[in-house]
Every structure is written in structure tokens, then in C-alpha cells.
């Protein structure tokens, strides 16, 4: 059975193929399109570990 990772904003599951980011504080996930305020360029830097980010609940 696959583990579920609900988005902290929309509560839908974050799948392996979704563009989503993990909060550096609580380690929960949020879809990139769910009011993160993160551009695609910033997202790519995050995937390299260059930028920290906090979810809508921790910020």
C-alpha cells in the first residue's frame, strides 16, 4: 500500500509526479500550484537543495 502525503493547503494527495515541495520546518508537502508563491525557477533551485521554504501553516 502506498503512503499518502496530503497537501497542507488543498488536502489532496501529493503524488510522485506532482510538482510539490516539502516544508523545511514541519516536513509536510504542498503542491507548487497551491498558493506557495514559488516560481518554477525557485522550485528548480529547491530541488537542488539551494533554497529553504516554509508551508502555508508554518509561515
Automatic annotation (TrEMBL):
Keywords: Metal-binding, Zinc, Zinc-finger. The lineage of its organism: Eukaryota, Metazoa, Spiralia, Lophotrochozoa, Mollusca. Coiled coil: none annotated. One of its GO terms (molecular function) is zinc ion binding. This is PHD-type domain-containing protein. Pfam families: PHD (PF00628). It comes from the Eukaryota. PROSITE patterns: ZF_PHD_1, ZF_PHD_2. Residues 4-59 form the PHD-type domain. InterPro entries: Zinc_finger_PHD-type_CS, Znf_FYVE_PHD, Znf_PHD-finger, Znf_RING/FYVE/PHD.
Amino acid at each position: 500500500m502506498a503512503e499518502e502525503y496530503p497537501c497542507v493547503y488543498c488536502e489532496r494527495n501529493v503524488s510522485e509526479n506532482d510538482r510539490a515541495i516539502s516544508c523545511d520546518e514541519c516536513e509536510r508537502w504542498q503542491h507548487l500550484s497551491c498558493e506557495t508563491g514559488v516560481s518554477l525557477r525557485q522550485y528548480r533551485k529547491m530541488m537542488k537543495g539551494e533554497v529553504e521554504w516554509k508551508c502555508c501553516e508554518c509561515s
